[in-house]
Amino acid sequence: MLSFQEIEKIVEKSAKVVNHPSQPANLYAPIDYMLSIGGKRVRPILCLIIYNLYSNNLDRNVIFPAFALEVFHEFTLIHDDIMDKSDTRRGQPTVHKKWNDNVALLSGDVMFILSYKYLAECPSFCKSEVYDLFTKTAIEVCEGQQLDMDFENKSFITMDDYLGMISLKTAVLLACSAKMGAIMAGRPQKECNALYDYGYQLGMAFQITDDYLDTFGDEKVFGKKIGGDIANNKKTWLLVEAFKRADSAQKARLSEIMSIGLWQKETKIQQMQQLYVETGVKDAALSVIGDYYSKAMNALAPAGLNEEQTARLGFFAEKIIGREK
Amino acid sequence: MLSFQEIEKIVEKSAKVVNHPSQPANLYAPIDYMLSIGGKRVRPILCLIIYNLYSNNLDRNVIFPAFALEVFHEFTLIHDDIMDKSDTRRGQPTVHKKWNDNVALLSGDVMFILSYKYLAECPSFCKSEVYDLFTKTAIEVCEGQQLDMDFENKSFITMDDYLGMISLKTAVLLACSAKMGAIMAGRPQKECNALYDYGYQLGMAFQITDDYLDTFGDEKVFGKKIGGDIANNKKTWLLVEAFKRADSAQKARLSEIMSIGLWQKETKIQQMQQLYVETGVKDAALSVIGDYYSKAMNALAPAGLNEEQTARLGFFAEKIIGREK
Fold it and tell me: Mean of the per-residue pLDDT values for chain B?
C-alpha cells in the first residue's frame, strides 16, 4: 500500500499532467487556473486510496478516472460561484470574477465534458458501470444544488430537508468516488456498495464540517472569510439545528440576528456565533460529525477488510473530519 | 426503410416518453419546457435515418442515444441564450427569461448530464466508441461557441476563421449524429467515416442556411425576428463574405451601416439587406449552400450505399438546405 502522501502526490501530478489545448484561451485558461489554485482533491484521493487497498497498479487507467471526479467537482464550483455570486474561492478570485460570467459558464461546461473524457480511460471491464454511476451521481449533485438554491427562498426548512439536500449536493459524490475505486479494483458488488456507504457517511460529515468551519474556522487556514454563511442567512446545519433547539426567546433572537443587514456584518456574525454556543449548537455539530464518522466506519463491515485496510480508511476519515480547511 | 415522417414521429414520441422526476421543479420544468417548444430535431432524425439505412430494429437502445443528441443540443441552446442574452427562441421566451439565469444555468447543466444518461442505453458492443465520439464532439462544440464569442470582440475575421468556428459550433455535431447512426448499425470504420463527412458538410450548409434565414427568411416561418444578426453586427457568413466582395466605397458603407445604433434598427437591417443583394452576397450564400450539399453527397462515395439509400440521404440533405426555419 502506498502512503497517503504518495497518493496525494500522484493526484497532484495528474492535475499538472493533463494537457488542454491552448486555444481558445478563454475556454481553457480558466480550467488550468481552477486546477492550479489548490483544493483538497478529496474525491480522487479517496478513489485511489480505496483502489490501492486492493492493488498497487496505479496507472493511467485508474488515475485519470479518479481525476475526473476532481474535474467534475471543480466544474460544479465554477458554476456554483456564478450562481452564488461568490467573489473568492480558496483565497483567490473566482473564475467569473477574474474573467466574466460567460467565460465561467462555458469553461465550466467544457470542464464537465472533460470529466467524461478522463473517465473514458477507465478499464474496459468496468467502463459501463463507472459511466452509469458517474452520470447518476452528477444528476444528483445538480439536484442538490437546486434544492440548496430553493432553500434560499424558504423561511424555514427542517433538518430532514437539510440532510436530504447535502446528501445530494455533497455526500453522493464522495460515495461515488469511493465506489469507483472498488469497482476499478474489480471487487464484488457487496463490497462496492459497502464502500459507497462509507463514502456517503463521510460526505455527510464532510459537509457539516464545512458548515462548522465557515462559522468557527480559522480564517487564515480556511482560505475564505469566516461568517459568510451567517451574513447571508444561509441555511446550514448550524442554523437549522439552532431553530430546533432554541426556546421561544432564543427563536426571537435568531430572527432578530438574521434581520441584521450587511452593513453590520461583524455584529451579526458575532451574535450568531454566541447564540450557537449558548444553544449548544456548536458542540452538537462536532458531535454529529463524530456520529457520521462512526457510521462511515460501521458501513465498512460488509466489505470484509483486514485491519490494515480498515485503519487506512479510518485515517482518511479522520483527516476529513479533523481538517481545518 | 421507414418513411421520413415515421422517423420524425419516433423522435417526437421519444421527447415525450422521457420521464424526469417532478422535483426539484426548478431543475426539471425548464427541461420539459425546452423539449416541448419544438425544434427541428435534425440531429436525432439524421442519426436514426442513417441507422435505418441498415436496420429496421429501431428500439430503445438506438432511439435513446439518438435522442441524447437532441438533449445535448438543447442544453447548448439554453446556455447560449444566457450568454447571448437572447429573449426568445422558437417564438417563445428563452429559459433564462421565463425563469432566471441561475435556473437556466443549472437546468442546462443537468440537461447535459441527461444526454449521457440517454447515451448509456446504446448497444454495448459500441458503447465505448459512441461515448468517445460524443465527448470529443461536445468539447468541440464548446470550443466553437467560445470562438463565436471571441469574434464579437474582433473588428475583422477572415472567411477561414468563420468556417473554422461553424465547423466546431455546428458541423461536428451533425457529423457525430450521422456517424453514431452508422456505428450503432455496426458498420465498418470506413463507412462510418464517410457518413461523418456527409454529416459534416451538411452541417456547414445548415449553419450558412441559418445565417441566410436570419437575414432573408420569412419571420412568420422562421420563428424569430429577421435581422437580429445584422442588428447585433454578428459576424455571419453574409457579413464576412460582404467584406470580401466589397469595393472600397461599399466597405465604407458596410462600416457605416454597422455603426447605426439599435434605435434605427429597421433602417440598419434594410440597408444591410440591400447591400448584401448589391454585392452578390445573397446569391453567393445560396450558391455556397449548394456547394456544401454537393460535398455532402460526394462524401458518401466510400460508404458504398445503393441507390435507394443514397436517395434517402439526398432527400434529407435537401430538407436541411431547403428549409425555411
Answer: 94
pLDDT in tens, B106-162: 999 999 999 999 999 999 999 999 999 999 999 999 999 999 999 998 988 999 999
Which ipTM did the prediction report?
0.91
- Whether B221 has its CB under 8 Å from any CB of chain A: the answer is no
Residue A303 has pLDDT above 80, yes or no: yes
For residue A309, give the CATH number of its domain. Answer: 1.10.600.10
At A20, give phi and psi (nearest 5°): -100, 155
Across the interface, of A109, A128, A145, the residue whose CB is closest to B79 is A109
Band of residue A220 on the pLDDT scale cut at 50, 70, 90: confident
Q: Say if the Cβ atoms of B112 and A109 lie within 8 Å.
A: yes
Interchain proximity B113–A142, CB inside 8 Å: yes
Q: What's CA A70's distance to the chain center, in Å?
A: 10
Interval A113-122 mean pLDDT: 96
User: Which residue on chain A is closest to B84 by alpha carbon?
Assistant: A102
Cα distance between residue B149 and residue A20, in whole Å: 19
Query: Which residues of chain B make contact with A83, given a CB cutoff of 8 A?
Result: 102, 105-106
Instruction: Inform me whether the C-beta atom of residue B26 falls under 8 Å from chain A C-beta atoms.
Output: yes
Residue B136 belongs to what domain range? Answer: 4-321
Spell B215-234 as b/e; 16+ CB within 10 A means b. bbbeeeebbbebbbbbbebb
**Residue with grid cell 474489480, as numbered in its chain:** A186
CA dist., res. B182 & res. B189, Å (int):
9
Contacts of A150 in chain B (CB under 8 A): 24, 26
State the total domains in chain B. 1
pLDDT of residue B216: 96
Q: How far apart are CA B271 and CA B253, in angstroms?
A: 9
